[in-house]
Amino acid sequence: MVDNWLNIRQFFKIGHCLSCCQPLSLFEDFCPACVDSLPYMQSHCPGCGESRPDQIGENLLCGQCQQTPRPFASVRALFHYQRPVATYIQQLKYRRRLDLARTLGLLMAKHLKSTDKTVDLIMPIPLHRSRLVGRGYNQALELARPIAKKLALPLDYKSLVRTRKTKSQTKLSIDARRKNIRHAFAVLGNKVAGKKIALIDDVFTTGLTAEAATHALRKSGATSVECWVLARAGLGQD
């Protein structure tokens, strides 16, 4: 579907900013002003991605992460979950705007360029097969495709699977989220053994989904797991 959209743009010579509609050259998606105005994360805790004052060192964990370390090695979030990025994510997930996956994925890849050698394999957070059939695609996988291609890293979207259908995490409490997602992932085969993994997802809120996936990957022999996410949300935002 992404390729179809690109073909349509090329045929009609369409080029305009997705945010302000300013005319652009072909295949550009944002004008420079709109790219600069997106809600980028600045200083944040590397353990959970929580935003914090700029003067705090980038490599220092927040108090919560120091007290209760996460199973994954780090979180890299490009944006705050705010408009217009929140709108783009909703359109990608629920309105089949797969063209946005390429645009946002390439922005993530540019942001991650300096860290692309810290992992061996890119893996999207999987959907359960019932949700995948209903939606028709996994937005995390669609984000992962341009990232893997741009960073020249292998993409594996088959080894990590969601073993049971879980409730949407959006309206659940933290305790309910933890119970809902516990033991929801498994790894097929042995492709992750000895590998440093980058987990790709659209939104990171409590990190419980990433924790459950990380436990499955580490149990199967992955040496480390990083979380690369498009946006960091607060509880109640996702």
Structure write-up:
The chain is built from 9 helices and 6 strands, in the order H-H-H-E-H-H-E-H-H-E-H-E-E-H-E. Strands 1-6-5-2 form a 4-stranded parallel beta sheet. It has 2 domains: 1-37, no CATH class; 41-232, Rossmann fold, CATH 3.40.50. The relative contact order is 0.15. The two termini are 25 Å apart. Strand 5 (196-204), helix 9 and strand 6 (224-232) form a beta-alpha-beta unit. By secondary structure, it is α/β, with parallel strands linked by helices. The longest helix has 14 residues, at 99-112. 36% of the residues lie in helices and 15% in strands.
Question: What labels would you give this structure?
Answer:
alpha/beta, Rossmann fold, four-stranded parallel sheet, 238 residues, two-stranded antiparallel ribbon
